[in-house]
Structures are given as C-alpha cells and as structure tokens.
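Run log, item B.
One chain of 536 residues. Sequence copied directly from the ordering sheet:
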Amino acid sequence: MQSTMMDFPLTLVHLLERASALFPQEEIVTRLPDRSLHRYRFGDFGRRSRKLASALQKAGLRKGDRVATLSWNTYAHLEAYFGIPVAGGVLHPLNLRLHPSDLAYIITHAQDTILIVDDVLLKLYDAVKEHVKLDQVIVVPLTGQPVPEGLISYEDFLASGDDDFDYPSLDERDAAAMCYTSGTTGKPKGVVYSHRSIVLHSLGSALPDALNLAGSDVLLPVVPMFHVLAWGLPFTGVMAGSKLVMPGPHLDAVSLLDLYETEHVTKTAGVPTIWMGVLQALQKEPGRWKLESMEMVVGGSAAPEAMIRAFDGFGQKILHAWGMTEMSPLGTVSRVKRRLRGDAEAEYGYRSKQGLPAPLVEIRAVGERGVVPWDGQSLGELQVRGPWVAASYYNLEAEADKWTPDGWFRTGDVVTIDPEGYIRIADRTKDLIKSGGEWISSIDLENALMAHPAVKEAAVIAIPDARWDERPLAAIVLKEGASATPEDLTQFLQPTFARWWLPDAYVFVDEIPRTSTGKFLKSRLREQFKGFQPVK
C-alpha cells in the first residue's frame, strides 16, 4: 500500500522563500573589516540571493558547476550560501587558513569554475591564481576600495541579475554544497552535501534537544562559514528566522563580546580556543559586558569541564556538541535528560561528554571483538550512519575503507557509550597511548591538566618507551604570569588518575601547534619531540 502524501522536494529554495516571506524585517548584521556594522534585513537578503542566482545563470553556470568562496562570515557570504545552490550550482567554501598549495589542490580537485572572494583576501587569491584555472573571479568590495582590473565587482555582478528569477528544477538529491576535510593526514578529502541532507540537517539541528534554535533567537556563528558550512548554522538560522550576527574577520574576544552585548546574542558557536579567549577576557574585566544569557555551542575538540564550570559562573551555558565534516556535521549534543537532573556534580559529568546522538543519527562502537556494550567502560571506534552522513568522498576511491561493508562511517574516534546513550570520546585512534598493553586517553589527561589554575592549554602525546612501548608526554602552555612545576602538575593529577596514567614528563612551550580549524596538531608535536627522553 502506498501513502497518500505529496512527494515534496526538500530543497534550499523552500528555506530561502520561507525566510523572505515570513521574516522580511528580521536583521542580518555584519562586522566589516573597518569594524563598522552593515545592517540589512531578510527581505533584502532574499532579493539579493535570487539576483545572485540569476546572475550566475546568465554568466553560464550549469547545473552541478562548482562555485568557490574565499570569504569570512558576512552578509555576502550568506547570499552565496543560498544563491549558488538555488541556481543549480554547488557552493564550495574554501578554508582561508590553509596553505596556498592546499587551496590550489582543493580548487583543482573540486573543479571549481567561479570564485567569489572578499577584497581583504585578495593576497591569498594572488598566491594561488597561477596554479588554478577559474573562468571568473568575483570580488566582494567590503572595504569600499576599487576592484582590481580584470576582476568583477560583486555588486556589479549582482546588478546583472533579474529580480524575478525563476528557480530551475532541482532534485532534492542534487549536490548543493561541498567542503573538504582539514587534511591533518594526507590530502584534504571532499564531502558533497545534497539539498535533502542540508534541509534534514537544518531541521534536526533546530530541535529543542539538539541546538534548540528558534525565530526568537539572535545567532552569532563564530565558527567560520568555510568550516563544515559553519556547522550548518547559516541554513538553520535562516530556516528558523533568527536574527543573524556575522563577525566578519574580527574573531578576537573583545570584538565578539562587544557584539554579544550590543546585538543581544542568545546563541553562538565556536571551537574551545575561541571560548578560552572569551573566558579570559571576562575574567580580566568581569563587569565590562552586560550579556544576555547565551547558549554557547562548543565543538571541534573536547570542552574541558573546568571551562564549562567557569562560564556557568558568568551566567553563560556551554553546550557540548560533536560532529565531523562527513556528518554535515551534527552528530551528538550533550543535553542532560530530565530524569538525570538535580545533582549538579553529576550533571557536569554529562555536560562534559560529547552527548546523545541527534535524531536520525545512529551510533555504535566497535572494538577488536565486534560491537561493544553501552556500559560506559568498553572502548571502541565510533561508527555512524544517517541521512546527513556521507557515504563516500568526492572522486577519491583510496579512502573506501572509511566505510564498513554494512554501510557505517568509521569516524576514527575511540569512545565509550554509557547505559544512557551518552558518548564520551576517549581519543582519536591515532592519539591513544598504549602503555604496557593498556590504553591511556590523552583527552582525559588534557582536560584534567587544563583545570589547573596555572595552565592555559595542554596537549598530551605518546613517546616511545623501551619497557612500556609508549608513555605520555604533556606539552603545557602556562597562563600569563602563572607558574607551575612538573611536580605541581603531577600532584594535581594524582587524585584522579591511576599512577601509570600520569605523564612521564612535562615540557613547557609558548604555544601548541593547531590545525586550520583550531584543533591541536599532535602530529607536529610528535615530530617536534621525536626522540625525547624523559629524565628518570
């Protein structure tokens, strides 16, 4: 028996039209390079997005053509997020923090035909232009400076489009956007998202037990729009009709806090590095900013429990989430179930985990002997599947082993899952430390060390050991003006960890190397301390 339901396509056209029709007066605010604020409304955004779509088609865009962006979080980038896919093209945000050689590889591998670039990023474009083939380069004049000869002004390009644009016929399974992984191992790998996967991801993200985004919210995505589509938040925010605040290139703590205060932000999202800076600014000048009570989504790497507690003291709530480029990216969110509330200490334990799987995301952990039980103790590699999880990489067969024969994506994260279904990431498979045949979680040690009042950042890596195979080495960045000895840090860890877990040595460094998305780059640390011999 067949249903009597309409076969209604899930495309970004509906999200764009909904925002334009129902929330035309809602604001979109952008911090420009000169720190001034650009303001306009959803009605303007919808009109300009359609003009961009029309202009692209007039310029020869064919269905499936890739249009790259090299841009900060701005109103124009938001227009590209919708204008490109509703024209039948594929939005491809480029990670502006990558080396020019990686950018050239990605542009070539993706077969990008058009580039939209902020004028403040033209030097980066200049570093790659001789190594790529692009049909057109369109410059967004954020500074008001003249567009260089031979390039096209974004505003002039928009003016060539029609206001009465007719959307092309789109299938919900058509490609809408693509992103590349940050490439910490091997070359970056492309993931292609469909209209359907983005719409479903937006609906799932907005749910109360996920990111709980509503039209009454004021959303500021700190996470860059070139990093997994800013975790899908631009799409979800437009769908919900939330006021959007775009920070542009100004991601320092003071600039963000000023925007949080003046624009009355209620929802924001970024990596732990950003929140560490914001926390330090609040601690340094505790009475300077009058903030709304915000929900601060943290992802990209684990949020230390000490940071969650510290923000609670300022009336701001850290919400732990986890995901990957291959997952659009939302996988889990750590909201505490109603029946588990009441014990504040127990709640912190749940809030510091990666959380429960989002609706439509299925999880399992697989160890050496198969699927492990949900007992909170057994370790296994996290595997996932769902309607917004990738089934392959773009034009890359070499990584086929990232998917199991029965269709699950292998995340590379080693986890435990407790009886309530909460995931705790113990480590990446390549970062676990095997000492005497037993596993040590570098993440657990790092989070504990960062709770020490003198420690700003901590990264733990494995170093070879003749007796135990591997032992932990902790790289420590101290807070400005603070001091701590290895003995102090060992004493601090002793009440929490077994003796054999404790680092064999500590090295004090000025900074910890990071990936382009803000995660600790442990491969570089391992290279830096290759051959290190602790004094015993």
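Observations after the first pass:
- The domain at 12-359+383-398 is CATH 3.40.50.12780 (Rossmann fold).
- The first strand starts at residue 27 and ends at 31.
Flagged for discussion on Thursday.
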